Amino acid sequence: VSLSSAPTAVRAAAVTYANLLNSQNDNNVKMIVLERLEEIKTKHSKIVQELLMDILRALSSPNPDICKKVLDVALDVVTARNVSDVVTTLKREVQKTTQDDNSSEAKGMVYRNMLIRAIHNCAVRFPSVAESVVHTLMDFIATDGGMQVAIFVRAIVEQYPALRSAILTKLLSCLDEVDNNGVMCICLWILGEYCDTPDILQEAFDDITTQLGEPPFVVKSKDKEAADKAAADAAAPKMITKNVVLSDGTYATQTVYSESKTPVVSDNTPHLRKMIIGGDVFLGSIIASSLTKMCLRAVDVGVDSAKAKSMTVKSLLIMCGIVKMAETTVSAQKSSLADCSERIALCVRALLDPKATAALKKTLLTEGKAKFANFLKVVKEKEGKDTKKEEALVPKTQPDDMIHFRQLRSLAVQGGDLDLDDGNDLARATGYVDGGSLLSNELSHVYQLSGFADPVYAEAAVTVHDYDIRLEILVINRTPNTLSNLTVELSTMGDMKIVERPQSQTIGPLDQITIRASIKVSSTETGHIFGTIVYTDASTLEKGYINLNDIHMDIMDYIRPATCTDEVFRSMWAEFEWENKVAISTSIPDLITFLKHIVQSTNMRCLTPHDEKEKGSFLAANLYARSVFGEDALVNVSVEKKDDNDGKLAGYIRIRSKTQGIALSLGDRITSVQRGLPKVTAQ
After folding, report:
1. How far apart are CA 288 and CA 534, in angstroms?
2. Helices 281-301 and 305-328: crossing angle, nearest 10°?
3. Fewer CB under 10 Å: which end of the chain, C or N?
4. Is the separation of the CB atoms in 48 and 37 below 8 Å?
């Protein structure tokens, strides 16, 4: 394929790749085949479109990485012609994850979230399939992939007003099945923002208040102790004594300890009330906000005044119960009590005070939807920019380049003269096509190991290629004598292992030699390479030793920018146990400039969109990267511009990872680069 662009040859290669993808069981082979298909897709997308359904058959693989690669290749070639077939296949795969749990156990929630994101992508790009997709996916809002479904429904409700009525009705029917706090928050926000007809608004209000029940939302301590004691008594083993007849006809007494089965407690308490009683302060503030919006909108959409007043009174009682719960319940969100109380107090004033109602009504009912619509617009523009960057290919052949036709040249020239195309063929075969500016890159990784006044001068050129480090050590004999048994003895610190040790050499007077060594790296962390040069002067037979400078291996050689969803980021943040907290101390005065500097210096990707036009005194962002070893690195930047600190930035940067090495190494990197912007030298 690299040597021919004929459609027949490319099609034959693509068909062969598709057959290999579905016939081979080796995951490495499948990944290589998918990478080759991705390369073909950049130049011959129509040929890959013809094989799209064959490529999607590889979703049956139990490896989630294979499935993710398949979806990445497939979604880029989806068109209006084949989108219905693709969406049908994806919906069938989503339904399989619930019908047959044994086959999808290895993939788990990750695979289902990937499928839901893929369907979301298709629905946003092709509105014709949105209606057929959204109702199918809403059946999964109570499963472990409910967060992705809720995010998808939230975007569809905003982007397609014609589907709002049907979606809200379906959402109300599924609301009592939702048992995840985050999903419930999104569902309540949708109902508070988009219920704009009297029937749906009253139905939504009645459903929410019915599931909440009557206040107070606090479990009495006596009832809780009685329930715990009853459960402990039921679980305690019981001793049973009975008479039995033995095999010889005699009687005996047998004592048996029996453990009763754990009784199945039929708790009919709705999930929403359980969440509030459990101490979810944030969910309580969202309930207060949603009920307030419904009450303010009730009269405008045609609800009679008596019903609207009844809704207002019931909402006020619920808000008071939520504040009482937040004050008395001990939970992990106890620190949010002040924010929750302030938010609910604002909602109460908006319902009771006519002046506050006139001032806040427009903000509460319209600003939320407007900001969310702007957020979706920013996300879409960002995705469009990323797509354009990927599509912008640098031309490999310039207009003035010479074209050689081998078939038109004489045999005499082909016999022994230099062929000008040999270099191009060799470059294609070795993958050296994009090898521009390699010299400057190599020179930036040259380290001086010894001083100019030492008898032996040494410097090392370090080449890092994923798991391997290649050292090319240039050794120069600066004495007029021959040096024998010259050995570069290397040692490492960190998760590095010397695979190929340098051999002993003999160097003549004022001569030089290049010695090579290979080091294998097993994890992402900062390492050090140090050593000594040992030699014998052939004329005086004296031994000499030269201690070499350390070679500091930078973690940035292994870090690659990556992307993930907010849900995956939060789950990894809660799971990872190693954390490094770095205090911000910088001379950079601007928040956005500081964030860009940290992102560029750490080779990470910012997952939080920011509008540079908006000015504020506080900024929070999540950064994500992945190492070449598959290790995840999470960074949270929380910085504010304090007026009482001469306008300087203050805050913390928190790093979390599964291994200690990444957390410590990234912390050292951030500490060294956060002081200020690098100085640009004039050319």
Report:
1. 76
2. 170
3. C
4. yes
